Amino acid sequence: MTAKEFMDACKGEISKNLIGKDSAIECMCIALLAKGHVLIDDVPGTGKSELAKSFAKTINSSLGRIQGTPDVMPSDVTGFHFYDQSQQTFIFREGPVFHSLVLMDEINRATPKTQASLFEAMQERQVTVDGEQFILPTPFMVMATQNPTDLQQGTFILPHAQLDRFSIKMPMERLSYEEELQLIRRFQGEDYNQINEVIDIDQIKLLQAKVSSVTLSEDVEKYLLAISRTTRNHESIDVGVSPRATLNLMKIAQARALVHERLFVTPDDIYQMAPLVYTHRLILKIDVHMRQSPEEVMNDVLSRVKVPVENHG
């Protein structure tokens, strides 16, 4: 199965229950192939959790789910040791993070300490509990959802270090009039449709390995770097993106090229994915927040960098 066939099959299955979410599904596929993580940020009722659950079904992956609430402890995420009297020894009980796909619903309702329990898992694909290290399965991907903090009380804003672990932060697409009408008609008296597997774990590993073979020309490399460096020198930005973020965008662009049946990255791959990869990593200057959103500042960054003209014949 090619990367495009995988993406198209995911869209076909997930669209049985979620209408008008093709771009979001594409981002999920790209993030998985790039070995990244996704933060879905939108208002309640837009299908954030359903998208994550349906995506797990398409790859026949076990899904570890954590409901973000203030009383959730780090051990509820990573697991814990308990004493087994029958064996007279301590045994480790794995937490939800030991699944290939992990959904942390409403992550910004969990306390900062619990949010931080995902740090090591997301970056190093391992967790340390009571001084003992445990390797997580491959592939491994965290999908987190959150509602905008200005709409919700009782939320904890994700710290910058945590946001930096997410390769992509994306909203859910707004439905058109026709799509919302289709949604109403589809679910009149019907339950959700069954989502079928479209790919297995071994095939995903092969596609992930193929991402590294997607090349960047020198012009595209310089374009990528120019965007990154512009965020560090922009008058509205206090802290721009890190070198890790630059590498993140490169991998995401490589994966996007692969799902569009190319073995080379185009400037458009960089241009289209940069807002999803960089915007949540920007720290704006204090006086800018009242005048501009991070999205507006990111668009201004892109407008200042000349897009190279590529000719691949």
Short key terms for the protein model shown above:
about 325 residues, alpha/beta, Rossmann fold, Helicase, Ruva Protein, domain 3, 2 domains, five-stranded parallel beta sheet, two-stranded antiparallel ribbon, 13 helices, about 40% helix, about 15% strand, globular
Description:
With 313 residues, this protein is of the alpha/beta class. It folds into two domains: 3-186, P-loop containing nucleotide triphosphate hydrolases (Rossmann fold); 214-304, Magnesium chelatase subunit I, C-Terminal domain (Helicase, Ruva Protein, domain 3, Orthogonal Bundle), CATH 1.10.8. It is 42% helix and 15% strand. It has helices at residues 3-14, 22-33, 48-58, 74-78, 112-116, 119-124, 160-163, 177-186, 201-211, 218-233, 243-259, 267-278, 294-304, and strands at 38-41, 63-67, 79-84, 89-94, 101-105, 126-129, 132-135, 141-146, 168-170, 237-239, 283-284. The strands form four sheets. It has a five-stranded parallel sheet. The chain has a two-stranded antiparallel sheet with strand order 3-4. A two-stranded antiparallel sheet has the order 6-7. The longest helix has 17 residues, at 243-259.
Our Rg estimate from Cα atoms comes to 20 Å
What is the terminal separation in angstroms?
26 Å
**Shape from CA axes?**
globular
Helix-residue proportion: 40-55%
Low-confidence spans: none
Number of helices: 13
Question: What is the CATH first-level class name of the largest domain?
Answer: Alpha Beta
Number of strands: 11
In CATH terms, what is the fold-level topology of the largest domain? Rossmann fold
- H-E order: HHEHEHEEEHHEEEHEHHHEHHEH
Q: For the largest beta sheet, what order do the strands appear in spatially?
A: 2-5-8-1-9
Largest sheet: 5 strands, parallel
Strand proportion, as a percent range, falls in 15-25%
Fourth-level CATH superfamily of the largest domain: P-loop containing nucleotide triphosphate hydrolases
Number of domains: 2
| The CATH architecture of the largest domain | 3-Layer(aba) Sandwich
Mean residue pLDDT = 91
**Category from helices, strands and their pairing:** alpha/beta
GO molecular function: ATP binding; ATP hydrolysis activity
InterPro entries: ATPase_AAA-3 (IPR011703), CbbQ/NirQ/NorQ/GpvN (IPR050764), ChlI/MoxR_AAA_lid (IPR041628), P-loop_NTPase (IPR027417)
Pfam family, one: AAA_3
Protein name: MoxR-like ATPase
